[in-house]
Amino acid sequence: MMLIDRRSSFLLALVLACAAPFASADVEHRLSGFATLGLAISDNPELVFRRDVTKDDGAYEHSGSWKSDSLVGLQWQADWSPEWGTMVQLVGKDRFDNGLAESVEWAFVRYRPVDGFDLRLGRLGADVFMLSEYRQVGYAIPWVRPPHDLYGITSLYHFDGADISKRIELGNAMLNIKAFYGNSDEEYPTGFNDGQGIKIDFDVYGASTSLEWGYWKLRYTYARVEMNSDHTKALRGGLQSLAPWWTNAAIYSTLLETENKEFDYNQIGLNYDNNDWWVQGEYVRLGSELTLVAAGQHAYLSAGKRFGDLGIYLLAGYAEPENPSITVIRPGISFSDPIDQQIDLLARATERTLNGVRIKQRSYGIGARWDFTPKMALKLQLEQIDVDKTGTNLWLRTDNTRPVLENQKPVVTSLAWDVLF
Prior knowledge:
6 helices; mainly beta; 16-stranded antiparallel beta barrel
């Protein structure tokens, strides 16, 4: 049974409370929706392809997945007066933690004291990507899904907080500036369909700016994230108990710390679209104090051409960690069993935890889109993804008890039917 938590209840109550004084006024309501029916097929027997790191299911050899990309969304927007407005967006899709609370993607009140200046409070979309406002609206993007090498890590769909934005006209260009602050939490699966996961709570603040002129759009975002969760306490406790005999145990324990640690996020993106040809690229660099949030670089570049209702495109991307993988070295002295076996287990768990977040891969793809009728599109996309054995975190292992010993080259074929209504 789907449940709704206190925070989501409060946000929905806030939206309704703000709407109540205008109930009898001349207001404008808009109800809209979007949906995607998607199928992903992979030829790899060891790795499970998934849309992003929040999913615990996906496609692998002889087992395609309808869950990876399929979703349905409903959006209600009301303008109660020139100054006040509200918006609620619900998205139903496969999630690891799939309650009604998680389905509330947006629920906010907007106040606009003057034209071009907005204050918003509530549950807001995370405006830190080129596709922030419509990353789940398949019809609005040219690909089957946002590029995997970059958007596979971007699990932040929304946060609870506030933002302030200003639009400034600069001749024929429009400059948008925004600052935001809030809190979010997300539960991440740790294995393929095993029901195990960790919940991470964090605060986020930052600013973004975008400039649009003619066919061009340029965007930059900076965000800083502070972790509130401590989900390695048990593992660190085991290491600390062996510190008198295991010199490196204290070092590994420090590397595993998460609470009150921070990482920052820099993003830059460029888009050109003259309704005939289009090009889009995006680059993200993560700098991190946490070993469990791997510092690294993620980027993609895509270009396409439209021929009436038919479009074709090419897509390439990469993800590269900044730091080498960590090899956990056992204590220099031997113990009798079962202590020795327990130390082996602890060393393997520590190494797996420290390296399990690494992402290292290259991808190359080609696709086509057919807008066969208004507000509907069919897409076909073919990608080869070269996954390094030391950086498989965007994927799940079909057998979680066995490490990936060789580099992998899965081919992922994707079909999607996108609809607006």
